[in-house]
Amino acid sequence: MRRYPAEWEKQQGLLLCFPHNGNDWPGKYGAIQWAFVEFIKKVAFVESVFLVVADEKLKSKVHDMLNIAHVNVSNVSYIIHKTNRSWMRDSGPIIVKNGSKREALNFNFNGWAKYKNYQLDKHVPEKVANHLNVPSTQVFYKGKPVVLEGGAIDVNGKGTLLTSEECLLHPTIQVRNKDFAKEDYEAIFKEYLGVTNTIWLGDGIIGDDTHGHIDDLCRFVNEDTIITVVESDTKSKNYNALQDNLNRLKKAVLENGKAPKIVELPMPTKLEFDGIIIPASYANFIILNKCVLVPTFNDKNDRLALNCIAECFPDREVIGISAIDLIWGFGTLHCLSQQIPV
Q: What is the 3-state secondary structure (H, E, C) of the chain?
């Protein structure tokens, strides 16, 4: 029986991929590399980092950068594999428990059903599984490969999953699995993730390149509490969608039939760069063994968001990581990483 552990359960480490494709961050690639080193430093302080690097040359460069920044390099191991991009939440494997053992699930990454250059990313799950020495399973349903990104789902480890209709059920935009209905996804969630109860939200935030990933919207912070972003500006294009999601959560039930506790998380002020609305969200935090890393945006709401998340994790340090450069790639800390449970 498979089970997808909650993010706050004990982790062996975090999967990351050092950026080598400057096209994801036009004009900011230099800054991104050092922002990434700082991210690695925070993770390596509390657990292992499994770091994908394109080749031996980049590995050597990164190792030097980590030493300059006084990173605990003894906690960093390298996986040599050239990728198209660095978004391990989506192209990396989802590690589940299958009985007492671990299993790496390969959900057939296809560039979010948007980009054509994902052929290198397709091999990430197998490479990571080999590095961890765990079996890899390609996910099929009714004989066809299933496409599902890690950023599209969030679980409480007890049987309930969060996802969005915009991402998985839109009939024409970024269609991952043609003609799939809720029942199809819920059958897959049950078989591969041990999920018996799915909470469906509506739309994602404006500017989200993935078209509705849940990890910019709402997250479990413990088995019965969900934190969800809300927009206070009634003129914002996000206002109605986030109110709809909040109302759905208030009517939702967990796998045990009880109502979840709901915590409201502010949104940063609208962030624009080069004429583009950027999908900045505090919900893109990553939970580690002893701390929670939260993206911040040089915004007045940074402090409110950090305090709000800190109240949800009284047993962990909550640390803000400046993501003002990272978000130019349309994602931040959670999108870039994938937890590896023990």
A: CEECCCCCCCEEEEEEECCCCHHHCCCCHHHHHHHHHHHHHHHHCCCEEEEEECCHHHHHHHHHHHHHCCCCHHHEEEEECCCCCCCHHHHCCEEEEECCEEEEEECCCCHHHCCCCCCCHHHHHHHHHHHHCCCEEECEECCEECCCCHHHCEECCCCEEEEEHHHHHCCCCCCCCCCCCHHHHHHHHHHHHCCCEEEEECCCCCCCCCCCCHHHCEEEEECCEEEEEECCCCCCCCHHHHHHHHHHHHHCCCCCCCCCEEEEEECCCCEEECCEEECCCHHHCEECCCEEEEEECCCCCHHHHHHHHHHHCCCCEEEEEECCCHHHHCCCHHHHCEEEEC
Residue 167: active-site member:
no
Compute the Cα dihedral for 81, 85, 86, 88 and give only its sign.
negative
Cα distance between residue 21 and residue 84, in whole Å: 7
* Alpha helix ranges (H) inside 13-123: 29-44, 56-68, 88-91
Give the pLDDT of residue 193: 98
| pLDDT of 267 | 98
Tracing tokens 């962030």 back to the chain, one arrives at 271
Catalytic residue among 167, 218, 308, 335: 335
pTM of the model: 0.97
Q: What is the CATH code for 2-341? A: 3.75.10.10
Instruction: Return the bridge partners of 3, or none.
Output: 97
What radius of gyration, in Å, describes the C-alpha atoms of the chain?
A: 19
Residues of the chain with pLDDT under 70: none
Q: Which two tokens stand for residue 323?
A: 């993501």
Given this model, what pLDDT does residue 21 score?
78
What is the separation of C-alpha 176 from the centre of its chain, rounded to a whole number of angstroms? 17
